[in-house]
Each structure stands twice: as C-alpha cells, then as structure tokens.
Amino acid sequence: MLSFHVILFLSFSFQFINCENNDLTISKGSIKDEIIIGEEETQPSKIFQATHEWQEIGSDEILPKGLHVRINLQTGKKEAKLLDNEDEMDVHSKVTSNYQIVEHESNVNLPDNARSLRRMDDLKQFSKSNSIKFKDVEKEKKKINVDFKSESELLKASLEKYANENDNNFRIQYLSDLEYFVHSIDLANDLFKMGGFDHLFLDLNKTNSELKLAVLNVIGSAIQSNTVLKNELFQLDLLRHIIILINKSKEFSVLKRSLFVLSAFLRNFPIAQKSFFQLYNGFELLESMLNKDTLLASRTAALLCDLENEYSSAVSNNLASRELYEEIDFKKNVQNTNICFKLVQLTINEQLDRYSRLTLFESLPKLINICSDQFRLALPMLESISAKLSLDDYGIELKNLLKIIEKSNIKDEL
Q: What is the mean pLDDT of residues 89-99?
C-alpha cells in the first residue's frame, strides 16, 4: 500500500507557491519544489493566462510562478502580468524561494518513505481530487513509526537554535526558517509568545547587514495582515527600532527593507500612524525618502497613496477609527511639507526605471485632492512630456494622470 501511494504521488509534477492572498497556486515544475501551506483553502481550477498587460486574476485561477502581481488601487482587484525583465521580481517570488528552501531542508533527514508520506499529508489539506485516496495515510504513518512534530514545535526548535548560535552565517539560516513559519498568523503569534522578537530586536542593532536583512524579513513577514501582533510589537517599540534604522542606515538594501517593514506596520494601523507622525516627525521622514533612490521614492509615493486612501475611507464612511485618523489630519500635514512638490519633480526624473514609473503613476491619482495645486502648476510640463511618449505602459498611465488633473481643474472651476 505504501509503495502504491508513493508512486501515485511522485507521478504528480506540480509546484506549489504562495501568492499574495495566501491562495494555493500551482504551476508546472520540479517535484523538489513541492508544497506551500496558505491560510485559506480555496481551490483554483484553471491556469491564469499571463501576458505583458495587466489582467485581473479570477478567484478560480492558478498563478504560475514568476509573475508580477499588484492590487489595482482603483478597483481593489488583484492583477498580474509577465515580468518584463529578470530584475523586476515581485516580493512574493522571493518569499516563494524561501518557502521552497525550508520545505526541502526540513525533509532532508527523513527516510524516503516518511518524506513522501509527509508531502502526501500536506497535499491532502488542499486537494479535493478523487484521483488520489488519502484515507490510509495515518495508518501508513503508524507503520513506519516516524515522530511527526507540530509546526509550533518546529518553530520553537528553530528559535532555540537561532538564539543559541554565535556564528552569523548559521543565525541567518535559522532566520530563514523562522521567516517561513511566520507567514502563518498563528505561528507568528507563537513566536511572540516564545520571546522571539526580543532576540530579533537585539540583532537589529548589530553591524552585520545580512543579519539585519534576515531579521527584517522575519518581522515584515510576521506583521502583514496580523493586527494582534502589530499591537504587541507596538508595545515593544518596533516603530522606534525601524525609524532608527532608516535614519542611520547607509546600505541601500537595509534601507529598502526597513521601508517595507515600516509600510507594512503603518498600513491599516492608525495607532501606529498617529505615533509615527506626531512623535517621530513621520511626514518629514517620508519627505526625505523622496530625495533618495528613485525606487525608494516611488515606494514612498505608494505608501502615501495608501495612507490617504485609509484616511478618506475612515472619514467618509464614519468608521470607528475616524477620530484617530482625524487627529493625524493627513491632508493638512502633507500640504505643510514639500511632499507634493517633490512628487511632481519625481515624475520627470530620468533615472526612474520602468517599474518605479508605473508605481508612481499608479499612486499619484489618489493624491490629487491633496496635491492639486502643485499638479496644476506642473500640468503644461507633464503634457509636454506625454506628447513625446509612445503608448507604452507608463505613457498610458501618464495620460490617465493628465486626464484626472484636467477633470480636477474643471470641477474646481465649476
């Protein structure tokens, strides 16, 4: 019976990866890149047909590996397209690689039959297919007498190895294991209860840049869509740790990852936003980010766009958090800085790569209400640039931005 199951399983050549909404996604690939466990159990039924144009992702569609994925801020829908070059890799592809590495390494010391059964047991959680029967998996486990530890136990073991290791190279490897686990909200919360973040914060003060990056990867993965953990880390002063890194870091990679963690922490968390803007001069810090590398500047524009969207939604829909957002007074405080002026200047920066331009032009329309005066003054200049562009992706985005600015002018005149 065991060999029958193993043969059936090995006949499958699917590779499982985790996409932005934690759905199960499948693409043709090697048996080495097996299974990623998400938080939901939705079952896609057809392959997403990617092109070089943005297309909406259907709820029943499977994403192949290596696509660029985004959320359309106007529709709220997830979209994907083919990568235009090898360097334009999205965050989730990087996460997928870490998943695959840890999944492979965690199986290295298991007997072949035990490893196959473990993979079959993981696959059981997602498959509704009648082509493979899993009812005898538990019986087969007992036959081979293998001790299967829970994920929480494996997390604790990885944390202990990390905390007790002095060699930074090994510590970085253990941090990669921790990053794999904390994509699960429950395991991220378990890591906090185990005191894991105390160790992580200590390493943020170390001089080793690779170690800092690994720590930031763990924290960034743990706090996404995890309000409970955000509240706990707010009490542990995570905001101060990240701001210190941003202000003092000279390495681009650390600065970029610190901005990612800051953005993940602030989004949909008005308590942290209030502290960031009122206690840590957050508006000035974001303005300074617009003076740095163009990639960092475009991502700062995207963060500003999301925060404005939160503020507008809370006020217009009279949400329970409305008072907190009103205390921040996002619109007025942005207008009291040079943020709008610098955003306009960024649009004509010749150093912007294609990805950064797309990010910028997707973000700016949401800031029209705040930066209308500066955008109107820049309208002739933007029209001149637009006339010289072919209708490639960012040329279209710029023309759309011009239409929005022009409509805003007409509305104000009326």
A: 38
